[in-house]
Design goal:
Layout lengths: L2 E2 L4 H14 L1 E7 L1 E14 L1 E9 L4 E6 L6 E2 L4 E5 L2 H29 L5 H27 L1 E3 L4 E6 L6 E2 L4 E18 L11 E6 L7 E8 L9 E8 L11 E18 L4 E3 L2 E9 L16 E2 L11 E7 L1 E6 L2 E6 L6 E5 L9 E4 L5
Parallel strand pairs: 1-18, 2-23
Antiparallel strand pairs: 2-22, 3-15, 4-11, 5-7, 5-10, 6-9, 7-8, 9-11, 11-14, 12-13, 12-15, 13-14, 15-21, 16-17, 17-19, 19-23, 20-21
Helix pairs in contact: 2-3
Family: Belongs to the membrane fusion protein (MFP) (TC 8.A.1) family.
Protein name: Co/Zn/Cd efflux system membrane fusion protein
Keywords: Transport
């Protein structure tokens, strides 16, 4: 007896192919346990803790320069030298006049004890000595002013003079910036007042140095809230041993104020906001496809059993409301609504509805 192959399976295969092509392609990520930190992010400009112009306190020709722009200096370090010949001559003259006044006063002391001079003459000699001593100290001070010294420790950011220039009193010669540490001041909304504290660790990322993060800490928090803006000032400090950070750089500061070591996290891209509710679409198995009807042959003919591989499980998108916790960059913590291992749709979530059949792309997590 001849066995006839059944031709009735082709329409069923076509239906399965059509159904598969109608499924929405999506990408998904697996909810997993991982540490996550709670932080506040703000932007600001790096500023030096201290900066000042180095000004001359006397006049004179600039004879020597000991530093250049970019050099680090310590407080009291010699930066430049003015012509001190006139100042030294004034010191010598004042010293001679003071010595003369000392000798005159010594004679007056002996004479007053013997009542050889009036009291008024003795007092005048005493005052003359004090005047000459003050003049001598003043002359020494003017000599010291010819040495231009650093008033603070820092980096020479600018030199404004050249050797041979005639320097006048109060003229600026250098600009020094104290970059240890550098500071960023954040204007933080008052709702964050209870979460931020002095000493908390922070990280800084600057536009000029992409991919690098610089650690720091919260130095101080303003005790009052600005009523006009509803913010309070938070000052963060950064010590950069590499000296890559410069005053004036703009960057983002992340203040980490709490951390959970075993949080359930998913990509932030999986979240949807609808009607004031936060939700995600979870990939679940749908109802198994119905088996195809058995093929029928002609009367009197035997029908061969068609061997087919089992149909792939149908996957559907199921909407679940979730409660979120901390957010850290591209990740978010899920406090309620998901379990470890759940797959959430990250790409294509706007194209599906509750119960939509989906096809998870192979490069999905």
């Amino acid at each position: 007896m001849l066995l006839a192959a059944c031709g009735g399976g082709q329409p069923a295969a076509d239906k399965e192919a059509a159904a598969a092509s109608a499924r929405i392609p999506v990408e998904a990520a697996v909810a997993s346990r991982a540490p996550i930190a709670a932080s506040y992010s703000g932007t600001g400009t790096l500023e030096a803790q201290g900066e000042t112009d180095v000004v001359s306190k006397t006049s004179g020709v600039l004879l020597k320069l000991y530093v250049e722009e970019g050099m680090r200096v310590q407080k009291g370090q010699l930066l430049a030298q003015l012509d001190d010949a006139g100042a030294r001559a004034s010191v010598a003259q004042s010293l001679a006049q003071m010595r003369k006044a000392e000798a005159t006063y010594a004679r007056a002391e002996r004479a007053i004890k013997q009542q050889l001079i009036p009291r008024a003459e003795y007092d005048q000699d005493k005052y003359d000595l004090e005047t000459q001593r003050a003049a001598y100290e003043g002359a020494k001070l003017q000599l010291a002013y010819t040495r231009i010294e650093a008033p603070i420790s820092g980096v020479i950011s600018r030199r404004m003079v050249k050797i041979g220039n005639l320097i006048q009193p109060n003229q600026a010669l250098f600009h020094i910036v104290d970059m240890e540490p550098l500071q960023v001041t954040l204007n933080v909304p008052e709702r964050e007042l209870g979460t931020l504290k002095a000493g908390q660790p922070v990280k800084l990322a600057v536009d000029a140095l992409p991919g690098e993060a610089f650690p720091g800490s919260v130095a101080r928090i303003a005790p009052v809230v600005d009523a006009s803006s509803g913010t309070f000032r938070v000052t963060c400090e950064f010590r950069d041993d590499t000296h890559a950070l410069k005053p004036g750089m703009f960057g983002r500061v992340d203040v980490v104020y709490d951390q959970r070591r075993d949080a359930l996290v998913i990509p932030r891209a999986a979240l949807i906001e609808e009607d004031g509710e936060t939700a995600v679409f979870v990939v679940e198995r749908g109802a198994p496809p119905k088996p195809a009807a058995p093929a029928k042959g002609k009367p009197g003919e035997a029908v061969a059993a068609e061997t087919k591989p089992p149909a792939a499980p149908v996957l559907v998108a199921k909407r679940r409301a979730v409660k979120i916790g901390y957010a850290d960059g591209s990740r978010v913590e899920i406090r309620e609504g998901l379990a470890p291992g759940d797959r959430v749709i990250t790409i294509g979530r706007n194209a599906v509805r509750d119960g939509t059949e989906v096809q998870v792309l192979e490069n999905a997590q």
